[in-house]
Amino acid sequence: MDCNDSLSRLDAYLDQELDPPGITAFDRHLASCAACQQIFGAQSALHSGILRHATYYTAPERLKERIRARIGSPARPSFGWQWPKFPQLGLGAAIAATAVVSWIAAIEYTAPREDDLVLEQVVSGHARSIVTNHIADVASTDQHTVKPWLSGKLDFSPPVNDLASAGFPLLGGRVDYIGNRTVAALVYKHRDHLIDVFVWPERKAARTTPIDRPSGQQGYNVVHWTDSGLAFWAVSDLNAAEMKSFIEAYSRGGAT
Amino acid sequence: MRAIPLEGPGKPSAADERARSRRFEQIFTTHLDAAYDYAHWLTRDARNAEDVVQEACLRAFKFLDSYNGDSARAWLLAIVRNTYYTWHQKHRAEAFNVEFDEETMIANGADASDLESSIGSIDQVLRQKDARRLVNEALAELPEEFREVIVLRELEDLPYKEIAAIAGIPIGTVMSRLSRARKLMLQHLKQAQQEN
After folding, report:
1. Interchain contact A133–B (C-beta under 8 A)
2. SS3 for B12?
3. CA of B181 vs chain A CAs: smallest distance (Å)
């Protein structure tokens, strides 16, 4: 692949519309061509800039009500489940039950969009750091250097542990920007692969177990979990089994 | 208020109508934000966006039976788009002209070498305090055809195939419009940086 081919495929690459051989060929050219890396850097900066900054307009409540009134649809959403009836329970219990159901509905109908956006940003943050060779702001294998450096730049303190004994030495950390906030990115290495762990405080962070998030992008493995009020997103091109052992090592030595 | 009566032979039973309402409600609730966001970026105005979305939803409900079970979001957004163009013709004489904008862009020389020199500044622009305003401006000022492909691709996260279906254009055109749209946006951001 030469520069012309590469530039003509750049949009499709960014948009994850290339087939796997196309991705491989593109990656190979990009790795060896400084000029294309520069252009790719600008394009991916724009891509994440739009995701971060462009306004997503959400429909006002009155519009929903107006449309429902016009089509004679029920005023309450019915997503296949019914509002629970608790005839024998007191008012308090009924309110509590309603709250739970609304909460479930909220998770189900708002979480995927936000989550997908985060997923995409996490993956492009990881890919961009590699392509632009901006791996770490603080390059140190010493957790006692990395942690205070990050704490000084952020309004929270991410758990940082060197996992060299488990085969995942710490390379350093950097400050990244995901979902409209600055976040910590911890960088680990395994053989020739880099692993980014993005960490930030999350308001409604109940503890969840790590789940694989299919990124659908360029063969990255993404795992997401929350613990102690922090959201964790690990991204790497490690295979699933290696990723799993990394997450185990990180959770053991990491999240306090 | 009653639902719009169905046409055709045989009166639909009340159960059919309820099922239809439920089906619409599900599509509507799931994709209303996408419809509104798309309409807002097309009209660049909150009130007009509401009018377009309301009209589109009424049309969608009326033609619910034409929905073939593919992507409900693409189906609804295509109706939003059609509604918008009808509305546009009715309400505004102002014509947009893609050729003109492309000429302007070529005259300004948005080629690869130009982009290369703007990389540093793009990063800086996006780190500025008013990055939100700058990005929104760069997007809002794109000619309509280019604006909508960026909104559908980046904000609605749709694949090329669905964008092509919504806008009624071939996939190749989706790609060339996206590519030009991005160059125009980079150029806009670069200028914003220089003016700073």
Report:
1. no
2. coil
3. 11
CB contacts of A60 in chain B (<8 Å) are 36, 46, 50
What is the pLDDT, as a whole number, of residue B161? 93
Q: Using CB atoms within 10 Å of the CB of residue B12, give its burial: 0 to 12 exposed, 13 to 18 middle, 19+ buried.
A: middle
Domains of chain A, residue spans:
1-55, 59-256
User: Inter-chain contact A63–B61, Cβ cutoff 8 Å?
Assistant: no
Cβ of A11 and B126 within 8 Å?
no
A120 touches B at CB < 8 Å: yes
The type of residue at B142 is L
Q: Where are the alpha helices (DSSP H) in A138-239?
A: 143-153
Long-range interactions of B6-13: CB distance < 8 A, separation 24+: B6/B65
Nearest to A74 among B21, B125, B134 (CB): B21
Is B157 in contact with A11 (Cβ distance < 8 A)? no
Q: What domains are defined for chain B?
A: 14-91 (1.10.1740.10), 98-195 (1.10.10.10)
Which residues in chain B are contacts of A56 at CB distance < 8 A?
Answer: 33, 37, 155
The structure's pTM equals 0.56
How far is B178 from chain A, CA to nearest CA, in Å?
8
Ranges assigned E (strand) in chain A: 138-139, 170-178, 181-190, 193-201, 211-214, 221-227, 230-236
* Measured distance CA(B151)–CA(B166) in Å, rounded: 12
Give per-residue pLDDT as tens, A78-120.
Answer: 343 333 333 344 445 545 544 444 444 444 444 445 677 788 8
Residue among B26, B132, B159 whose CB faces A53 most closely: B132
Query: Which residues are CB-contacts of A11 (< 8 A; sequence separation ≥ 6)?
Result: A43, B175, B178, B179, B182
Q: Which residues from chain A sit within 8 angstroms of residue B115, using beta carbons? A: 39, 42
Cβ <8 Å between A42 and B115: yes
Structure tokens given for B90:
């009715």
Q: If you search the block for the tokens 């309400």, which residue do you land on?
A: B91
Q: Say which CATH architecture domain A59-256 belongs to.
A: 2-Layer Sandwich (3.30)
* pLDDT tens track for B136-146: 999 999 999 99
**Beta strands across the sheet bearing A221-227:** A138-139, A170-178, A181-190, A193-201, A230-236, A221-227, A211-214
Residues β-bridged to residue A108: none
